[in-house]
Amino acid sequence: MSNMLPSILNGHAMNEHTxxxxxxxxxxxxxxxxxKTTLTANVGIALAQLGRKVVVVDSDIGLRNLDLVMGLxxxxxxxxxxxxxxxxxxRQALIRxxxxxxxxxxxAAQTRDKTAVNPxxxxxVCDELRKEFEFILIDSPAGIEQGxxxxxAPADLVLVVINPEVSSVRDADRVIGxxxxxxxxxIYLVINRVVPARVKxxxxxxxxDIKEVLSTEIIGIVPEDDAILSxxxxxxxxxxxxxxxxxxxxxxxxxxxxxxxVPLEIPQALGWWQRLFGKAS
Amino acid sequence: xxxxxxxxxxxxxxxxxxxxxQTLLAYDRLEIPPGVLALIKDDIVAAISRRVSVDCEHVxxxxxxxxxxxxxxxxxxxxxxxxxxxxxxxxxxNAR
Lengths: 281, 96
Ligand SMILES: Nc1ncnc2c1ncn2[C@@H]1O[C@H](COP(=O)(O)OP(=O)(O)OP(=O)(O)O)[C@@H](O)[C@H]1O
Ligand SMILES: [Mg+2]
Fold this sequence. Notes:
Number of strands of chain B: 2
Distance between the termini of chain A: 46 Å
Structural class of chain B: alpha+beta
Shape of chain A: globular
Radius of gyration of chain A: 18 Å
Number of helices of chain B: 4
Shape of chain B: elongated
Bound molecules: adenosine-5'-triphosphate, magnesium ion
Strand order of the largest sheet of chain A: 3-4-2-5-1-6-7-8
Largest sheet of chain B: 2 strands, antiparallel
CATH superfamily of chain A: P-loop containing nucleotide triphosphate hydrolases
Strand order of the largest sheet of chain B: 1-2
Oligomer: heterodimer
Helix content of chain A: 25-40%
Largest sheet of chain A: 8 strands, mixed
Largest interface: A-B, 19 and 20 residues
């Protein structure tokens, strides 16, 4: 079914209000700490800002933190394991993010481990969610063990987050291989924490280098941005109200995912004169 | 400008990273550990030495990787028997 979707990078004209067929998007990486959770939160919110019905799912059972990055931790009562084990209905486990129209979080359990849910159950959970939502974003744990397999199983589209460094790119290659061996055909890279000045000085792998080495399409380039840390300190992801380069990048990714054609470029921070007089000057 | 950038780049470590990655991924995708290449080299030298004299010091076995394929490129200098005999009789060691 997902094979029949047009390549999202070509952009297909789509009325903002035509509901989309539900898509499960898994955000993964292999290597830990590269920015999966930050991306899931921001792109989820940005998609909801575009008017889409979105649920973000934390599949990092035992080490949940998507709720923290989104500032929703104090509202958790039930989690995905409670639902899978029949202690609550799916609706009861979903937490509504009141900052945007149609955004929900399905939290992971904190006190259990990765084996509390299996890939088959994850597919069933997503099939339920497909009835209600247009985008189901799954934040995968690091590694390639069961937690990763759980996140991968229901995916129509796989986003592989990479930092421009050797170990991260290598792990991404492994993850891409595993996704392909599971029959996934829609696999895209997000290059996170790019520092354009260092790429220019040839101290950092460029986007072109990474694309060539992995022979995989890129769907987003997110610059290194100091605003990310204070945003996660506050539980208020940068796309909520930020205008910095990472916020712009996450919004671009959301627009591409919802079918808009947005040229791939590295969003730059605006200088003080541009902020005063507009981008054109 | 490009040249200037390159001049100021400490060692163009991005290029080094890219080359290391290309090699690393070639091994990863073939699912062989990089050290196996040295063993392959020994095997090849042993096999070929049964028929002809090989200049063991200068044998080169490399994994060449292109977009979607990898190949072994093997460079095996041979020692001509006549030359070798001449070397022995002349007591020199630099002839091939
Ligand atoms: N573009 C960015 N600029 C600056 N800091 C970033 C950026 N993206 C992520 N970070 C920081 O990197 C750290 C790791 O991010 P995050 O938790 O999203 O990674 P992760 O891949 O989900 O990690 P894990 O594998 O542990 O789940 C966080 O401190 C986050 O603030
Ligand atoms: Mg995470």
